[in-house]
Amino acid sequence: MPSSTDYSMDAYNAQLQAKQQRLQQLLAPFTELQPEVFASAPQHFRLRAEFRIWFDNGIGHYAMFNPGDKRTPILMEQLPIASQLINQLMPKLKAAWQANSELSHRLFQVEFLTTLSGEALITLCYHRPLGDEWLAAAQPVAEQLGVQLIGRSRGKRLVLDKDYVTERLTVAGREYSYRQPEGAFTQPNGGVCQHMLNWAYEALGQQSDDLLELYCGNGNFTLPLSTRVRKVLATEISKTSVNAALANLDDNSISNIELVRLSAEELTQALNGVREFRRLASIELDDYQFGTVFVDPPRAGMDPDTCELVRRFDRILYISCNPETLAENIRQLSDTHRITRCALFDQFPWTEHIEAGVVLERV
Questions:
Q1: Is the pLDDT reported for residue 133 higher than 50?
Q2: Number of domains comprising the chain
Q3: Where is the active site (predicted)?
Q4: Which residue among the candidates 125, 321, 328, 342 is catalytic per the annotation?
């Protein structure tokens, strides 16, 4: 992001208002409700950042590129949208690789993952094989910076200690811990993520029946929502995310969640009796009394068959990272369900990106 960006509160509020108007326009055919708006901090909100390393006269610099232009680097020493911890680590890490050719040789990318709880994981990516020499050079740097450090090259990953950080988020007064593995999806804006979790917790309300969750990731929403229902069946297709979610269930001593590695499309086929899956062999689907389905799909939204599956539920709690596909899905559901609550979560300030949440209830 260019350093000339206007990070003033006036500029931020103007952009947030435009996003609110855009979301209202998309939802207008279905509701007159005004979305609740959850703003972000205008700076230091992003917990993840990825930089290319651009070498000039033997000096490696952090670099980003404008879309469509991979030849003109924007060199930077700091990134105002990144967390304060990332900005603190950037010059220290740069000094470390400049002082050691084993760390800088053919280094082409650096990825930072930080948490609100103060942990950091850094991945250094190389266009060369890595071995014991790299480990010996990296170990004192990890200790000096107080971070987890990983080296990546083609077909190789060297982990010094752990390949994850642990985030801590508070929902309705209870703190939850989340393992966030390297390379797995996590919400980039921790402050807004905490708003999302609390909004979903409140929007669901206390229920006496069960919850089905599709696209559960590392259990970000699953953990707090499990305290609002009798039990949860959650699905996720990514092995890395499933393993993190299982660890998170143990770490938080939550026992009313069954987690299955299935895509939303596969679960739809299973519930419709189209296919049987060995991964569901130990699950008695008939034992569940589903009243609510929670979905947090990718940008493409729900496919038509999954949309028809969620129509069966009295309550649909939908978090969307693409309001256009959200509106398309609501249109498919609008003959049986109506919006009773909606929200805008500004996960990505200084972009046009809109994150939204809606509650749909059977008419």
A1: yes
A2: 2
A3: 321, 355
A4: 321
